[in-house]
Every structure is written in C-alpha cells, then in structure tokens.
C-alpha cells in the first residue's frame, strides 16, 4: 500500500512531464492499434472466407472469362456439392468516389453457397423474382441511405450503358467478418442484355464458386477440376476461397509490410521517449535512492520503484490509447466508407496494444533501474538534484 | 568494564584515481561508548565524513576493523550491511534528505517498512516520534511546507523511529541559521541524555561540536586530538 502510494506520488511529481509522456503514449498506442486494424481489414476477406468454398477461374488471368457450360461439368466432379458463378460488374454509382463491389450472380445457387448473408425470406424471394432486382449488404445500404424499393442506377464500365436496379433486399452478416459492402444483381439479366447487344460477350462467367463436401478434400477437388479442363480452350486454376482472397492481398503486400513496420517504429519511438523520461527522473532522484539505500532499503526496492512508476505511466497511457482507438476506428471506418468491408478493432489488437504499452514501460525503466540499483550510497548522497 | 559500542582498529581508507592511490584515512583507532555524543571535527578533506560513512556502514574500509555492538561490519556483505543499517543506525543529513512527495508522517514511517510492525504499530510509533520532536501538528505537511529546522526535526524523528543503537549526523546544523541550529543541537542533547542514544556527528562548527561530550579532530586522515574522552 505504502509502495503504491509512493509510486503514484512519484509518477505525478512532474505533472507536465508525465502528462506529455502519457500523451505520447496515447498517440503511439492508438496509432499502433489503428495501423494494425488497417492491416487486419486488408485480410478481412481472407478471414471471412469459407473452407468449403473453392474458386475456379481462368488460369491465364482473372480478366479472362470461363464458358457458362463449365457449370454442368463442375457439378459432376467428385466432392463437388454446389456450383455457382459471379461476374465482376464494376459499375459507377453517381461518381467514382462511391466505389463498392458489385457482382452479377446466379441468385439461387449463389445465396445457397453464402449462408452467412442473412436476408429475410420475403426479400430473398422478391430478389429471385425480379431480374432487374438487386440486394445489398447492410453497411452499403446504410452508407447511401437506401431503402427496399429504391432505384439504384449504375454506369457500366465493363458492361456499357446505364443499368438501373431495384433494391429488393438487404442482408446482415452472420458475424463481424461477413462482408456487408457489396451489391449483387442477376447474372441472367446482364447476360440477356449482353446477348442482345454484344453477342460475343454473353454466356461467360468471371469465376465459378464451388461448394465442396469436406474442407480436407479441397486440394483433391481442385486438382480434379483443373485436370478436367486441361488442354481446353479455357484452362482453369482452382484454389480455396482464402487463397483466392489472399492473392488480392498479396498484390499490396509491400504496402502492408510498410504499414506494419510503421506501427512498430511508432512503438520504438515512444519507447525511446519514455526511456529518456525515466532516465531523467532517476537522475533527479539519485540522492533519494541513495537515502533509501542508506536507510536499509535493498537495491530491489529501488528497482521496484522505478519499474512500478514506469509501468504505471505506461499502463495509464496504454489503456487511454486503447480506449481512444475505438472512437477513432469508428471515425476512420465512416471516412473510408466501403473501402474496407470489415474494419473492426480485434481482441488480439487490443491485447497487443496493452502488451506494447507495458513493454514500453518495462524497457524504458530497465536501464535507469539497473543504474540506480547499483549507485554508490556515498556518491548518491552528495548528489544535488 | 563495559565494552565500547564502537571499536575501530587500524582503520584505513583510500581511493584510486587515475591509477594513483589517494589515502583518506590512515590507521585510525577510536572507541565510542554507548550513550556518548561524539563530534568529528577537522578541515575539509580531513576524512571526517569518510569516517562517519564507514561507521554508518554506507562505505567499506580498505583495511582494519569496525566493530559496532560486537559486529565487525567491515566483513558484512552489501545485503547484510543494509539489514544491519536498518536495525542499528539512524541517519541525520545536512540537507535532511526527506522524500519530497511524502508527508512528514510518511517520511518518518519509511524506515519502519523494513520492520515487521503492523500498520497500527507503525502509526503509533510515528506519532510518538513526531510528538518527541514537537511536530505533531505538522504530520500531514510536506517537506516543502516546512522550515529547515522543522525538516531537520522530521529527519531526527525518522532517525529515531526504529530505536537504533547509533545515530550518525552529518553536519546536522550546516544548513540552518544559528538559533534553529541551537534547537536541533538541544534535541540531539536530549536524545543522548534522556534516551541514552549514541551519536556520532560531523561538524565544522566549533560551537556545535562543543555541545558534544567529546570532540575528535582529524587532519589529513589522521586522528590528531581528542577533547573530553
């Protein structure tokens, strides 16, 4: 109790210095948490992927389509339970700044493969029945204030012209990892228009999504699929949904590495700042530590005083930084809109924030504590702080 | 015949600076009886503070023995010496050396944390000591809120609170005006005559030294004269 009282009083002896150090810690821990959350958001697609879904695409490039008739052949592959398909639509809603992902899908088979999209049955049926209908995730609907029945005009970039869809449903994600920032429309409708206007571009599929019976069979099923289409006009590359998502993440891996490096550098910088604070503190109190040792207190007591004070400041700054991360993440989330489908401060990030703060406190105190535990009492008593 | 509380034999202390040996104390012999008030005097650099530090167990001799209460403290390890100091020595410093973030009460309580006393026992003991030095009404004051004389009285209460056999005082009136210094010296007198404490005090001030029952003079590390032995 006495030690705690001494720690608290020592920690706030120089209120301005301690306050500024804590502000630095709050900023650093908050920045660390936000940067980690950005990295997590980048990987959200991978995290939210299913282990029982495979993605089949052209082995030349994602931009090369596959024929529609592959669907029938895929259904016959051993281990395949469901088959659906999707095309990237790439439309513009009013302005390019409003970017969000849009996919033309086969509604019934697609939603069967994505049970994590929770949509009321009547909305689902309304979507199935309306070939010009669309459904969107909750986050996207909230962003643009869309209601059921609203008309959503999209200017096609891949598929020329202006396409207007009627909003028939809004899905909620089964958990925080579920993407709620997409728009889905009927592949059949798009294909029908293409058949009329650009015959050569109809009956083509961007990717097939294949539901398999058992996650352990993913590799075998993938090999069977790719083998089946070997030497065909459109050879395939089949991978798990996670690997497919990861291939997008890997395109920006250098940026992610840089972001992670910056988050660590911030922690190292605040560590140096705090170490400086603790070193100054210890030097100023040299005569006090010498007095304590003269009175019979052990070097360990002096070590506990310095570590305790440093950890106390670090813990207070760390917790404040952690608490501030939530509102800042919310602001960031609303600022970036649907750029990151999932932007959530994870439990692991919070634990790492606290660990980083305490690590900073411990490292900052190490050198001054070691020095002060070894001070010569006589020399220390001569010191004028 | 009663054995002396402090028995110093063939005590030498030296430092090495830049490869050169610098002797500070040379073959000191000194005995102090329990209940004595001894003043160590001498010019700057004579080694009086070094001798006091050695007696207090915060420095180690180069040669010789320092027996206090029958214990040769020169042979104790750092840890043993810390325990020995906590139990046997009370310190009074020239600049009081109180912890500025603690109240007078907490400063006096500090050495008691090294004893096995309960909080209630500690608080009773601290209250007694503050009453002894006449600062009961200043118990909650911080050092910065006390005058120099009051701070030194808090330091004296801290030195006494564990009931040590020996009190060492390094220039206890050096930072005080004449009348406040007199008050502090009277308090030290009281400790010797009423509580039977043994005090070894370093001072430059002949008037302060005159309050001690015995004066020991050092010059260039050698004990040259004694008055009142």
Structure description:
The complex is a heterodimer of chains A (385) and B (229). Chain A is α+β, with helices and mostly antiparallel strands and 385 residues long. Chain A has helices at 2-11, 15-42, 44-47, 70-75, 107-113, 121-129, 138-144, 187-197, 218-228, 241-251, 253-284, 286-295, 299-336, 347-373, 377-382; strands at residues 53-58, 66-67, 80-88, 102-105, 117-118, 133-137, 151-155, 162-173, 183-186, 204-205, 207-212, 236-240. Chain A has 15 helices and 12 strands. The model of chain B has no long low-confidence stretch (mean pLDDT 92). Chain B has 229 residues and is an alpha/beta fold. In chain B, helix 4 (119-132) packs across helix 5 and helix 5 (148-160) runs parallel beside helix 6 (178-195). Chain B has a single domain, classed as Rossmann fold (3-Layer(aba) Sandwich), CATH 3.40.50. The interface between A and B is medium-sized, with 21 and 27 residues.
Throw out a few tags for this protein:
heterodimer, A: 385 residues, alpha+beta, 2 domains, two-stranded antiparallel ribbon, 15 helices, 12 strands, B: 229 residues, alpha/beta, Rossmann fold, 4-stranded antiparallel β-sheet, 7 helices
Explain briefly what this protein structure is.
In chain A, 56% of the residues lie in helices and 16% in strands. Chain A is an alpha+beta fold and 385 residues long.
SSE layout and pairing:
The complex is a heterodimer of chains A (385) and B (229).
Chain A: H1 2-11, H2 15-42, H3 44-47, E1 53-58, E2 66-67, H4 70-75, E3 80-88, E4 102-105, H5 107-113, E5 117-118, H6 121-129, E6 133-137, H7 138-144, E7 151-155, E8 162-173, E9 183-186, H8 187-197, E10 204-205, E11 207-212, H9 218-228, E12 236-240, H10 241-251, H11 253-284, H12 286-295, H13 299-336, H14 347-373, H15 377-382
Parallel strand pairs in A: 4-9, 6-8
Antiparallel strand pairs in A: 1-11, 1-12, 2-10, 3-4, 3-11, 5-8, 6-9, 7-8
Chain B: E1 6-17, E2 20-32, E3 37-41, H1 48-56, E4 63-68, E5 71-72, H2 78-88, E6 89-92, H3 104-109, H4 119-132, H5 148-160, E7 166-170, H6 178-195, E8 198-202, H7 206-210, E9 214-219, E10 222-227
Parallel strand pairs in B: 3-8, 3-9, 6-7, 7-8
Antiparallel strand pairs in B: 1-2, 1-4, 4-5, 9-10
